Every structure is written in C-alpha cells, then in structure tokens.
Amino acid sequence: xxxxxxxxxxxxxxxxxxxxxxxxxxxxxxxxxxxxxxxxxxxxxxxxxxxxxxxxxxxxxxxxxxxxxxxxxxxxxxxxxxxxxxxxxxxxxxxxxxxxxxxxxxxxxxxxxxxxxxxxxxxxxxxxxxxxxxxxxxxxxxxxxx
Length: 146
What we know:
Layout: H1 3-32, H2 38-66, H3 71-103, H4 114-119
Helix pairs in contact: 1-2, 2-3
C-alpha cells in the first residue's frame, strides 16, 4: 500500500469509528437512562466493539507509516490501540449482560428494582439529581495570619 492509500484508509476508518462510537454510546446511554429495549443495548454494544476494531485497524495501518521515523515508538501505537479495544470491550459487554439479567430478574429471584438501582448513576436519587451519601465539607475554618 502506498502512503496515500494508507492515509485515505485511515481517514475512512476514523470517520467510521467516530460515527459508530457516537451511535453506540447513544444507544447504550438510552438503556442506562431507563429504556428497557434490549435490542438497542445489544446494537449499541456491537457498534462500540466495531468502533474499537476500527481503532485497532488505524493503529496497524499507522504503524506502517510511523516505523520509518522511530520503530520502537511506532510499535507502541498499535499496542495502545489494542489496549483501548480491550478496555472498551470490557466496559461494554457487562452492560449487555446486565440487560439480560434485568430482562430475567423475575426468574433470577431478584427483588424488583435491584438492577435499576445498580444501573442508576451514583449521584442520581429517585427525587432528583442529588446525593445524600456524599459527605459535605464542614464550615470553613478561619485562616491563620502570621
């Protein structure tokens, strides 16, 4: 592949990665916000995995360009992109698993609302966005002047 072909391919992968990440994040966030649609969550997770694979592809293609400048440093670029995919997959797949548990919570004998409480952000209570569990700072102490 010529450097121009690599550049065009990297550009196309970058655009695909951004679009799939945006759509995937939107679909998984909808589930976190209370949408019970399992299909949307599964599609969002799949799009996030595709986004991660595109990032790895970008890393592998860029290695071919970067190795001409510094081979040791160039090797770290695809390695970091593979780590990024692993982290993305590790964070996305448990959300899909929780969805399956939520859909089967009656057969798993979980009390109603258990998984909803687990999926709710920590600072979001049932009566608005406030947290009663975060310790608050006491009154400010006067400054000592010397």
